[in-house]
């Protein structure tokens, strides 16, 4: 059996995800859980639509408690997200891992995925569907923060408020950005269950 080695470590021992990346990922997962469930409780106090979220899946107990959770989680999500994005840019990882993205490669990988033929041999390499999904969720995170700033301090961020189309529109933007995030996480978790080796790598690095 051929053993693929590099001058540094045998294949099984090479790091797939650096420690900083793994820490940022799991802190982010916790922050998202806090933000989404407390956000649903806040939403229930003044629903935008004809439904409310069940109390069993919300955090904070009541509006005041939920706002406390949301504001605490906001710093965790914002600072950790900034750290993740800055590290990705500064180390050149963003460019290396998530680009190039071409419509052709996206189409090919989507077709392969539908046929169950998308390769997962090398976990250090993201296919184009993953690249697009991860870039999308990064952008969605930024949109959540920006629209959240407008909902929180509308008067202090007049430019952002205008960009969002006003205070009321910012609430809808914030809601739909949350929905997109929840949609991503649902698909993300299904994908992780389909390829459990990726979970091991995100936990222990290899
Ligand atoms: C308990 C929940 C979660 C689990 C079990 C999980 C698991 C994983 C795993 C296993 C990977 C590596 C994928 C691969 O190597 O192919 C990954 C990557 C990623 N996950 Fe999650 N995840 C969770 C929550 C989240 C949440 C809430 C977000 C929200 C934004 C997220 C965003 C990402 C991103 C952006 C990447 C790519 C990271 C990079 O390489 O820079 N994950 N996740």
UniProtKB/TrEMBL annotation:
Subcellular localization: Cell membrane
Major site of localization recorded for this protein: membrane
Keyword hit for Electron transport: yes
Keywords for the protein's UniProt record, in alphabetical order: Cell membrane, Electron transport, Heme, Iron, Membrane, Metal-binding, Transmembrane, Transmembrane helix, Transport
GO biological process, one term: respiratory electron transport chain
Family: Belongs to the HupC/HyaC/HydC family.
Protein name stated in the entry: Cytochrome B
Species, as recorded: Rouxiella badensis
